[in-house]
Amino acid sequence: MDVTQIKDMARKMAAGATEMRRFLHARPEVSWQEVETSRFIASKLEEIGFKDVKIGTDGKPVGVVADLKGKKDGPLIALRSDIDALSLTEEGDLPYKSQSGGAAHACGHDGHITMLLHTAKLLYSIKDELAGSVRFIFQPAEEKGDRSGAPAMVREGVLDGVSAIAGMHLWAHVSSGKVQWRAGPVMASVDGWKVKFTGKGGHGAMPQNAVDPTVTSANFILALQTIVSREINPLETGVISVGKLVSGDVINIIPESAEMIGNIRTFNPDVRDKMEAGFRRVADGIAATYRCGAEIEYTTLYPPVINDRALAELLRDTAVQVVGEDNVEESPMLMTSEDFSFYQKKVPGVFFFLGSGDEAKGTTVPHHSPRFNIDDDVLPTGIALMSSFACAALERR
Questions:
Q1: Residue from 331, 337, 326, 334 nearest 312 by CA
Q2: Percent of the chain with pLDDT over 70
Q3: Second-level CATH architecture of 191-302
Q4: Rounded to the nearest 5°, which phi and psi values hold at 310?
């Protein structure tokens, strides 16, 4: 199918896509609770003509998978959208503002669902021209961290028979309509940690009779940064952040304990292992130095997103045809994370960004903000991108 024809077809879907995206935006559901969202997706796929639409992930009625078999023999590729919302209360006065006080589509997943459903509709209409098959994956719980949806779907066989996978993210940090791509590392791994230092509580006027876990914590925070600055090759990338520190309640009491939580991010698996080892050593060492006990919890969360070079270059070539050379640029490496990486550990994959930032429309607000919104005018571009890439990938492979 010619890209120009696909663009024309996607353009004709603009009004319906905007209506759907706003409908979903008003009805967000957080991770592992996307029951109505999943029913909506399944019903739309069945309306298109899909058979054997599967609902359910990890024993819950959330997440949807459907296959489209082309008339021609060929490989099976997958296209993925995340479907969950965030646990926050939306602000502002949008006419399609979230109807849930505790959930909001503040990352663009409502747009992702919309674009993939319309991609399914477009490709279904030209299925006789497809050189293979396409699996549509609507994944729950991308935002869940230690219990995200991608590894659960992988365990349940969503990649069985799949030779390649693609995912797209709307990106407020990039001007509307621009496409960012990258071969190799794109987004960082993320690990979570928790440390509890236990000392001996006492009166603030008599520190000699206490063992102060707050002093221990302060030195630990400073020492942590030396792992990156003095143990990691300066040509590598890593970051250690402290997200929360809790210790004590009143001004004249040295507390018994102090707790901290945070995260570690990098791109290189070897660096990831080295940073964990350094983290544990520093925590134990600082605790011993300041006479405290240390309880450490360390949780590996998402691997790094690493794009297959051939697929990334195919995506770039496709994007040039869809939006023009001037609107295609290489993405920087990002320290944010995405559980799309779990698919890439099993099959070659490409993850890319579609800009939705327009100052005049108020869509440059950062992701995860209570005032986040997307530019609906880019939805047809995303539909054309995913549809064109699917056709190109099937032809290529």
A1: 331
A2: 100
A3: 2-Layer Sandwich (3.30)
A4: -65, -40
Using DSSP, state whether 176 is helix, strand or coil. coil
Q: Which residues pair with 189 in a beta bridge?
A: 266
Amino acid at 202: G
Instruction: Show me where the domains of the chain are located.
Output: 3-188+304-396, 191-302
Give me the residues paired with residue 302 across strands. Answer: 190
Q: What is the mean pLDDT of the chain?
A: 97
DSSP H helices, 232-268, are: none
pLDDT tops 90 at residue 229: yes
**For residue 355, which of 391, 328, 389, 321 has the smallest C-alpha distance?**
328
One-letter amino acid of 62:
V
Q: What is the pTM of this model?
A: 0.95
The two beta strands, 60-69 and 133-139, are antiparallel
Q: What tokens appear for 379 in the block? A: 């939805």
Find the farthest-apart pair of alpha carbons in the chain and give their distance in angstroms, rounded: 82
pLDDT over threshold 80, residue 397: no
- Whether domain 3-188+304-396 has CATH 3.40.630.10: the reply is yes
